[in-house]
Amino acid sequence: MVSEILRMAVEQGTGSQAKGAVKARFETGGEHLSIPVPACGKTGTANRFTNSSFIGQVPGPDPGSGRLTTGAGYTIGCYVGYDDNQPMKSEHLAIYGASGGLPVWIDTAEAVVNQPAYRGAIEPADLVFDEWPVSDEVPQVSRIPVSTQTGLPLQARQRGADSPAVLMGALLERDETGYPALKRNFEPIEGELK
């Protein structure tokens, strides 16, 4: 329940600047992939603007399955403020959690997910498909254009008429929290991801 509250703070609340901002970067066959990693967390602003903070988490790859879980994740806290505790507010500017701690947190979280050990333990396709919204009851099936190099979905600006398409997406099972999980129905084309 707490994770869901913190996820919604990023999805729709004061931490919305972090939504889609933490990206794992991969290269394969001359193609550059930048895939958002889910995040959750909460901004904080002290009385009189004496400090601003963001405490959040990015999931990490489970050593056994490679699937992203909060149990294997990283909790990161960023604090911004003066040593003498003076307010970070003037006539024209005030530093809130979203404008002080959160940008530092995003940069730190992105450095964590781009460490070779983190990227090497995950499958980029799992990042893409775990992020797709799924209704609690209705399976979703879509035909989407994919890269011939990686098998991952192409962004709108990359899609061409000759891009292959796969039928993907089905509500196959619920995850450990009881939420429906959208699963991919193909393996990416073999190749080394750097």
Largest beta sheet: strand ordering: 3-4-5
Strand/helix succession = HEEEEEHHHEEEE
Question: Roughly how many Å is the radius of gyration?
Answer: 19 Å
Q: Which spans have pLDDT < 50 for at least 5 consecutive residues?
A: 131-142, 166-172
Separation of the first and last Cα atoms: 36 Å
| Total strands | 9
Mean pLDDT rating: 75
Number of structurally distinct domains: 2
Q: Total helix count?
A: 4
Proportion of beta-strand residues: 25-35%
Largest sheet: 3 strands, antiparallel
Summarize the amount of helix as a percent range.
Answer: 10-25%
Helix/strand class: alpha+beta
Oligomer: single chain
Task: Please state the overall shape, judged from the principal axes of the Cα atoms.
Answer: elongated
Question: Which terms would index this structure?
Answer:
194 residues; alpha+beta; 2 domains; 3-stranded antiparallel sheet; two-stranded antiparallel ribbon; 4 helices; 9 strands
List the helices and strands and how they pair.
Elements: H1 2-12, E1 23-28, E2 31-36, E3 40-45, E4 51-61, E5 68-81, H2 101-113, H3 116-120, H4 124-130, E6 142-145, E7 165-168, E8 171-174, E9 180-182
Quickly describe the structure:
By secondary structure, the protein is an alpha+beta fold. 19% of the residues lie in helices and 30% in strands. The radius of gyration is 19 Å and the shape is elongated.
